[in-house]
Amino acid sequence: MKIDGTPYRTIWPTADNSAVEIIDQTKLPHIFTTLRLETMRDAERAIKDMQVRGAPLIGVTAAYGVALSMRDHASDAALAATCSKLLLARPTAVNLRWGIERMRAFLAPLPESERAAAAWLEAARIADEDVAINASIGQHGCELIRSLYHDKVHKGRGYSVNILTHCNAGWLATVDWGTALAPIYAAFEEGIPLHVWVDETRPRNQGASLTAWELGQHGVPHTVIADNTGGHLMQHGMVDMCIVGTDRVTARGDVCNKIGTYLKALAAHDNGVPFYVALPTPTIDWTLQDGVKEIPIEERAPEEVTHISGLCDDGQVRSVQLTPQGSRAANYGFDVTPARLVTGLITERGVVQAEAGAMQKLR
Amino acid sequence: MKIDGTPYRTIWPTADNSAVEIIDQTKLPHIFTTLRLETMRDAERAIKDMQVRGAPLIGVTAAYGVALSMRDHASDAALAATCSKLLLARPTAVNLRWGIERMRAFLAPLPESERAAAAWLEAARIADEDVAINASIGQHGCELIRSLYHDKVHKGRGYSVNILTHCNAGWLATVDWGTALAPIYAAFEEGIPLHVWVDETRPRNQGASLTAWELGQHGVPHTVIADNTGGHLMQHGMVDMCIVGTDRVTARGDVCNKIGTYLKALAAHDNGVPFYVALPTPTIDWTLQDGVKEIPIEERAPEEVTHISGLCDDGQVRSVQLTPQGSRAANYGFDVTPARLVTGLITERGVVQAEAGAMQKLR
Prior knowledge:
Helix content of chain A is about 40%, strand content about 20%. With about 375 residues, chain A is α/β, with parallel strands linked by helices. In chain A, the strands form 5 sheets. In chain A, strands 8-7-6-9-12-18-19 form a 7-stranded mixed beta sheet. In chain A, α7 links the parallel β7 and β8 (about 220-225). The longest helix of chain A has about 45 residues, at about 110-155. Chain A is globular and about 65 Å long. Chain A starts with a strand and ends with a helix. The relative contact order of chain A is 0.11. The model of chain A has no long low-confidence stretch (mean pLDDT about 95).
């Protein structure tokens, strides 16, 4: 997608293939800066310090980390050591493991002398595959938006589609396009008039910082709202559809996503607003059924609730404390939206109902 | 209620009756400081600058403002001028008008020479009436908490009642006790083990700052959470009841309250958690029926969404910007929870169903 008119991905090899570059996402939305990753350690730090985040992007960065490492040492021992080290950068990131294991399986059978060059190509292939999957999610989701748009115009209910999203499932979380935002970018490119309500997404504010930034840079009309606002908007016909991403979907269609998603799904259901979840099919965990009972929810540091960062008058990004000294805070990272509240799953293989039978075709 | 062990109200006359004192609520939760109001202008500024907030407290402060003014000039002209001036401090605050009109009606028939002394007593009477109403709300609500507690213990489901609240409807918003928090303080005083989940309540964070502070000072166990969290907690049996305040209730029981209340009511309904609204009966607007259609929702400054204040490392309270330059924000102050999602209204005259017929007895 575009930054100030220039097309970007979130990770790309330099012209001379000597390194990869990334956008330092810890500095957004206040400062746009890119970083050069020249060694496996650079890639490891970028993952650990969350300069890259979002499951697909973490996987691709790790793949490039393996590739950079192979240039220095390509022995079996070096490959094993590299993979072990990178895995520790964010131990709970499923895609990190996936990206590393794919590189290991691909490189292990090759002769040492071919590993460096082959690894570089394989990392690029993983990146391109992610872009293709997301572009396809975008096309399938765009059909829904187009049809809502025509329906709205036909019924004289307005000339622009209002879409609410939660957290950041945009191109910054992937290599390009994003998941939840891919249909929005596709519809925007097609010229369908639209506007996005961006939940700020406390406590880490990925909506107010990342989603608002990437939509703004690409030129997509949007408005940031407090997470408390969506219900009121839906009661008053100001939201035509919701699209969110997900970290994990169960075999019967329960959706684990950023904390607060469930509340928006309840409001959508109560007001007859379609609620869609966009995902690449590997996000489905076929071993799970009841998401509320079976998916463990990560508790994160209370400081993410008690403190927040932003840009001060003096141009410095500072953290400020919001709560009184001595008040405890709890920080649950995700919640589970039961399938009954989900209108459909937008995948790279089409839109399907969030229901065990319908989902079989994605298996 | 107590601050660091010492009993306080939010407004009180000095020992020599020369002035009234208030807590400067703009400094909370980081700094506790009191202010002396010696003139009508001091009272006016305290209301305008939101050093006092919450409908009942604004009304009482205005009443004391009239009383202070009568000491300097007690003519009919002075009374009229004082009332007009104070009304402008926060033109949309219904209780401000109510407090001033009550003082005007009380003072107008009195001889000039008696007005100053009478006004002082009347202002104190208004304050005491507020305390009595809230104490009564506390007692009625406490019965609900007590019964939930006994039920929980009886069923072996735990030994502490978990109550979720949104925004600040605590003693800081009234003269003492509060509305939504009055039952909690009453139950706490009675020794019922309880714990309060405090919604931070973006964008103005009255939960994280005021509710957390007053509960902490009084010694009530509590945990601050992002507004996104309540649904997850309710899905997992971690909330036994919700109690919120309200700015306006319609004749059929629709509840207008701080934005985000509706989302919590939906989650409570979806998980069988009782959802109560605490209010003094004058909060009911008998002229309104359908709250969603009939109650206009105030749009506030977008800066409350794009910026937030907190305590910096250097001990200064600073405002930081959360959103990217150029991203618009919308800031709806309230939403309406339909009566069908409300378990009951806790009033000074008892607990009644949020339903036109049942509410007749409050008329």
